[in-house]
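quick one before i forget lol
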Amino acid sequence: MRRFTLRLLMALVGVCLLVLYAGAAYLTYWGPAIVWQARPSLETTVLYVLVLTLVFGYFSYKFGTERMLAGLNAVELPESRAPRLHHRLDDLTAEMDLEKPRVLLAEMRAPNALALGGRSNGILVFDRSLFHLLDADEFETILAHELAHIESHDSLVQTLAYSAVRTVVGLLTLVLLPAILLLTGVARAWAWLRGKPFHWEQSPMGRLRRRLGQIVALVFVLLTIFVRAHSRHREYAADDRAAEVTGKPMALARALRKIQRATETGFGLLSPLYVSGEEENALSRMLSTHPSMDDRIERLVEKAEGEGKGRHRIEVE
């Protein structure tokens, strides 16, 4: 009798779970369905989504930049404190047809640099230790590298790209959510009816629900890999632009080598903006925002050799 009562209670719990999840699935389907019925034309809908993505991405970038600089304790570096830097910055911005960006000092826990903004509102941020690590020519090439990012609005483009990824994944999740909830409810209810409430994911419905979740995760990973690949491409482009503007590819190679040796490998929210980047395996290489530092240095050495900068093989110490 006691066993029968327990099974009856478990069956009741299963039915309640099914009703709960089915109701949630209906609500998540009903709301978007009403919006979809009242939708404008497909072209207008796509335009609305695109505009909203860009607007949210821009404001995310704008306010995120302010929070980032506050978190780094960034302060202005006036010309009176670094006249040579500002003089060379004036020359580079004139050559690259840019408005002079703000120059900030920050605490990044490692020698590094990052660029924010675009042609008319650029910001350069340098870790304090970078000034003691690099000589004048090396610092000039890092300066040109970061200006190349500003020239191409790379930080804004990356932020908008991540905003687009979130939008696509969010829309896909919204479309699949009713099915995910319903499958979860059926799987949990069936598990309770069988007396195995903790094994619901092993049922056919549970496995199907897991597959839908994996589809969302796979789309997110693939889009992220695409965005990160674009980021790595922009790093190569910034290296090439810096070598072109300064005419000192070997100085940039030496600067990167020094930064590599002085910087511990790590990952954080600022990693898409840093000048350095390392990889450990194939997956981390695909998800890295920066190419291998060795690859970047090798490209610069080959560029220097191709331009006749030395008769013999050039080594970067």
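fyi The mean pLDDT is 83.
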